[in-house]
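Work Package 3 (structural annotation) set out to generate three-dimensional models for the target panel prioritized at the project kickoff. During this period the team completed the workflow that converts sequence records into discrete structure tokens, so that structures can be stored uniformly alongside our sequence database. As a representative example, we reproduce one entry of 360 residues exactly as it appears in the project archive.
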Amino acid sequence: MQIGIVGLPLSGKSTLFQTITKTHIDPAAVAKIESHRAVIKVPDERLDKLTEIFQPKKKVNATIEVIDVVGLQKGDTGSTQFTSNFLSKVKTNDALIQVVRLFENELVPHPEGSINMMRDIEEFETEFLISDMAIVEKRIESIKKQIMKTKDEQLKRELPVLEKCYEILQNETPLREAHLKEDELKLLRSYQLLTAKPMLIALNLDENQIGDVDKYLNELAKKKLGANTKALAFFGKIEMEMSELSDDDAQMFMEDYGIKESALNNIIREAYELLGLQSFFTVGEDECRAWTIKRGSTAQEAAGEIHTDFYKKFIRAEVVHYDDFIADGSFAKAKEEGHWRLEGKEYIVKDGDIISIRHG
């Protein structure tokens, strides 16, 4: 899974990237055209507990690739230019985090001249809508010409979906909020449409605004949030300092400021929810590992995440849920209690299942 972080210049997107990835970007490199990338481990207290119990040779967290997408430029008039170079980098991501600046700093003025949450959010949305409309319109024209020359059934199925999407975009509705069917989304996937990507809006506040979090989130919820758009608040400057501390010191730091959860944990949880993801575990003396799958995945599909041969030669899955295993204290006790069981390939895996695959 790949998540792209976008935002207007001086919004704090690179600060967020460095905070959640615990990396450092040289200020001289920020202005370069290459995006910054890092793979982060997904924090999971359940995996930590299983590792403590089984004492394996290694622990393997699930991972997410995070991209600090660069390329926005200032035009001659001072306004932000959404270049084709920037938009092409955004398209490759599975989901997006838009960093929106809410803190004041006279030494670092906002590029638009003032702090305005809704204006900044809508600036991105408008550019993404325009980009998608251009792509969809061009494809519709191309398909209509091809249909006149061929009887391709795939094109005939694709055309009404694209026409439906074009109408939605004309009404200034992002495709992520259009309640498209799974088969329609599948047809659109290859176009990498920007407004179809799940969006997490990250409001960047300073330490003087901790008490204002609910106010901003409630305002945003009334105007912009749908099923595939979520919002959270973080404190860029504070969390940048925390990322350089030990876990214990960072926890004390959070308590002093009244911050309930770190940006990393908050963002990962919301990103998983947006993308419809969940985790299952494999355990043993060699390794305890968390695996990421789509909600609704079958046991056979989960087996395929572990190894392609497990999918092809799947026989049964031994399954016990994490909560039951911890309550029972062992696999033997879980069997006695009826919590450990054998499941077939159509079993729908639950978040937190501990699974062992039997295969041919």
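The longest strand covers residues 287-294.
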